[in-house]
UniProtKB/TrEMBL annotation:
<comment type="similarity">
    <text>Belongs to the ABC transporter superfamily.</text>
</comment>
<dbReference type="InterPro" id="IPR027417">
    <property type="entry name" value="P-loop_NTPase"/>
</dbReference>
<feature type="domain" description="ABC transporter">
    <location>
        <begin position="5"/>
        <end position="242"/>
    </location>
</feature>
<dbReference type="GO" id="GO:0005524">
    <property type="term" value="F:ATP binding"/>
</dbReference>
<feature type="domain" description="ABC transporter">
    <location>
        <begin position="262"/>
        <end position="474"/>
    </location>
</feature>
<keyword id="KW-0547">Nucleotide-binding</keyword>
<dbReference type="InterPro" id="IPR003593">
    <property type="entry name" value="AAA+_ATPase"/>
</dbReference>
<keyword id="KW-0472">Membrane</keyword>
<keyword id="KW-0067">ATP-binding</keyword>
<dbReference type="InterPro" id="IPR017871">
    <property type="entry name" value="ABC_transporter-like_CS"/>
</dbReference>
<protein>
    <submittedName>
        <fullName>ABC transporter ATP-binding protein</fullName>
    </submittedName>
</protein>
<dbReference type="InterPro" id="IPR003439">
    <property type="entry name" value="ABC_transporter-like_ATP-bd"/>
</dbReference>
<keyword id="KW-0813">Transport</keyword>
<keyword id="KW-1003">Cell membrane</keyword>
<dbReference type="Pfam" id="PF00005">
    <property type="entry name" value="ABC_tran"/>
</dbReference>
<dbReference type="InterPro" id="IPR050388">
    <property type="entry name" value="ABC_Ni/Peptide_Import"/>
</dbReference>
Length: 477
C-alpha cells in the first residue's frame, strides 16, 4: 500500500538525553492520525521533526518518507506551505504583532499562492467569514482573545493548501462550539489531504477518529484505531487521560455560606465602540463557585476585569456586601508569562510578595506538593519552567494571599488534562475551604457544571442574542 507519509524509527535527542524514543507510523490520505498525550510527552517535538523546525540543539534520527520517497530536513523546509502546513500551539507567537488579521491571511495568498491582491483580499474575507471572524479583520493580534487568535492562525496555516497539515493543540483556548468548527475543518482537510493532530482534547480525538498514538514522556504507550483506544484503553496512562475528561468528574458539593459577597446588577460593558454584553445580573455568595462561559470574544475576561475594578462598566453597578481589602480580590490570568517578572527567581517573587502582603511562609511547601510543583523550581526564573508549571505557581501565589474573591481566567489552559482536572478540583476545594468565592471563566460547559454552584452563558447577554429573544436567565446547576 502507498502511504502519503511513512515514518521509521524517528527519535529526537540532545547531546546528553533522548527526548523522544524511536517511533514509527504511517499516514494515508483520508485517515487522520491523532497523537494524544500530556504536556512534555514529546508530541510537538515529533511535529517539529516532521517539518524540519527543531531547534539547533536538538537532533532528529530516523527516516521520513513522503509518497514513498525519503526526504531530508532541508527538503522538508522547502515544502512549507504548499506540501506541509503547521498550525502552531501558540498563535500569539506565530502571528505578526504589527499586522491586522486580514493582511496576515492575504499575505499567504500573495506570497505563497502568487495570487493578485484583489483575489487575496476576497479569499481572506471568505476565510474570516467561515470562522465567524469578519468583525476581527482589522484587529491586531494583541486585540484578539486567545480563541480568536487561534482561529486566525488556523486560517493562515491552511490558506496555501498544504496537503499535510500538522495541527498542534488546535482547540486550545476555544469554546466548545468553535472546537467543533475547527474539528469539522480538520476532518474535512483529512478527506482532501493528510492530517496529524497533536492534542490532549479527548472530544476532538473522538471527532476525528482515524488512527491514534498515545505518548507519555517521550514514549509510545499505546497505538491503534482511535475509537478502539478511546472505548477500551489498554494502558493505565491512556485510561487516566480519558477519565480526566469532565464527563467523568464527580459533582462538587457546594460550600456556599449563603451570605452575599458581591452583586452585579444590570451590567453593560462596551469596548472599542462595541457592546460586549448587556444587563448582566448575578450574585456571588461567600464560598460560592460561579462559572462563566461563552464564545471567544463575548466579554468573559472584560466582565472579570469590571468586577475587579480594572474596567468601568457602561451602565449598571457592582456592589460588594463585605469589606474586601487590598489583595483580597485577585485574578489568575489566562496567560501566566505576562503576569510575572521574567528575570528573577520564583523564590524572589514570593519574597517580594511577602514584603507587600504578609502571608504564612509555612504554607508554601504543602501547597506546592498539592499543586505537584517541585520545591527546586523556586530557584528558577519564570522563563526556566514550563507554562503549565508557571500557571500552577500563579495559583499558589494567589492562595497564599487568602483572598475573599478569586477570579480564575482559563486557569488550566496550559495544563495537560490529567493535571488540569486535578488542579481545578484542588483550586475550588482549597479556595472554598477558606470561604473564598471563586469565579471560573472557561470554555468547557461540562467542566464548569461539575465544579460550580452556578453557571451562566455570557453569550446569552450579547445584543445579537438578545435581539433574537433568547432567554437570559443564568443556568443553575
Amino acid at each position: 500500500m502507498s502511504y502519503f507519509l511513512r515514518v521509521e524509527s524517528l527519535s529526537v535527542k540532545t547531546a546528553q538525553q533522548v527526548l523522544v524514543d524511536p517511533v514509527s507510523f504511517t499516514l494515508a490520505k483520508g485517515t487522520p492520525l491523532t497523537i494524544l498525550g500530556e504536556t512534555g510527552a514529546g508530541k510537538s517535538l515529533i511535529a517539529a521533526a516532521l517539518t524540519g523546525t527543531l531547534p539547533k540543539e536538538l537532533v532528529a534520527k530516523g527516516q521520513i518518507y513522503l509518497h514513498d520517497r525519503a526526504v531530508s530536513e532541508s527538503e522538508l523546509q522547502q515544502m512549507w506551505g504548499r506540501k506541509i502546513a503547521l498550525l502552531p500551539q501558540e498563535p500569539w507567537l506565530a502571528l505578526d504583532p504589527i499586522m491586522p488579521a486580514h493582511q496576515q491571511i492575504e499575505e499567504v495568498h500573495t506570497l505563497v499562492n502568487q495570487a493578485p491582491a484583489s483575489t487575496a483580499k476576497n479569499r481572506a474575507q471568505s476565510a474570516l467569514e467561515s470562522m465567524n471572524l469578519s468583525h476581527a479583520k482589522q484587529k491586531y493580534p494583541f486585540q484578539l482573545s486567545g480563541g480568536m487568535a487561534q482561529r486566525v492562525a488556523y486560517l493562515c496555516a491552511t490558506q496555501a493548501g498544504g496537503e499535510l497539515l500538522l495541527a498542534d493543540e488546535p482547540t486550545k483556548g476555544l469554546d466548545r462550539a468553535h472546537c467543533d468548527i475547527v474539528g469539522d475543518m480538520l476532518a474535512e482537510h483529512a478527506k482532501q489531504g493528510a492530517l496529524i493532530t497533536i492534542t490532549h482534547d479527548i472530544e476532538l480525538a473522538q471527532r476525528l477518529g482515524g488512527d491514534m498514538i498515545v505518548m507519555k514522556q517521550g514514549e509510545v504507550v499505546e497505538s491503534g484505531i482511535a475509537h478502539e483506544i478511546l472505548a477500551n484503553p489498554k494502558s493505565e496512562y491512556a485510561k487516566a487521560l480519558i477519565e480526566s475528561s469532565p464527563n467523568h468528574w464527580p459533582k462538587r458539593a457546594s460550600a456556599s455560606s449563603g451570605q452575599p459577597l458581591v452583586s452585579i446588577e444590570n451590567l453593560s460593558l462596551r469596548r472599542n465602540q462595541t457592546t460586549l454584553f448587556d444587563k448582566v445580573s448575578l450574585r456571588v455568595d461567600e464560598g460560592e463557585v460561579v462559572g462563566i462561559y461563552g464564545q471567544s470574544g463575548c466579554g468573559k475576561t472584560s466582565l472579570a476585569d469590571a468586577v475587579l475594578g480594572l474596567l468601568t462598566p457602561s451602565s449598571g453597578e457592582i456592589v460588594f456586601h463585605q469589606t474586601v481589602g487590598v489583595g483580597q480580590k485577585l485574578k489568575l490570568y489566562q496567560d501566566p508569562p505576562s503576569a510575572f517578572a521574567t528575570h528573577v527567581t520564583l523564590n524572589q517573587l514570593l519574597n517580594d510578595l511577602q514584603q507587600i502582603h504578609s502571608f504564612d511562609e509555612a504554607e508554601i511547601a504543602p501547597l506546592m506538593r498539592l499543586l505537584k510543583l517541585d520545591l527546586g523550581l523556586l530557584q528558577r526564573t519564570p522563563r526556566q519552567i514550563s507554562g503549565g508549571e508557571l500557571q500552577r505557581f500563579a495559583i499558589l501565589r494567589a492562595l497564599l494571599m487568602k483572598p475573599k474573591l478569586l477570579i480564575a481566567d482559563e486557569p488550566t489552559s496550559r495544563l495537560d488534562p490529567i493535571t488540569a482536572a486535578e488542579t481545578l478540583q484542588l483550586l475550588t476545594s482549597l479556595a472554598t475551604e477558606r470561604q473564598c468565592s471563586v469565579i471560573i471563566i472557561g470554555h468547557d460547559e461540562e467542566a464548569l457544571r461539575k465544579l460550580c454552584d452556578k453557571v451562566i452563558n455570557l453569550h446569552q447577554y450579547s445584543l445579537e442574542t438578545l435581539s433574537h429573544k433568547v432567554a437570559i436567565t443564568p443556568v443553575s446547576t
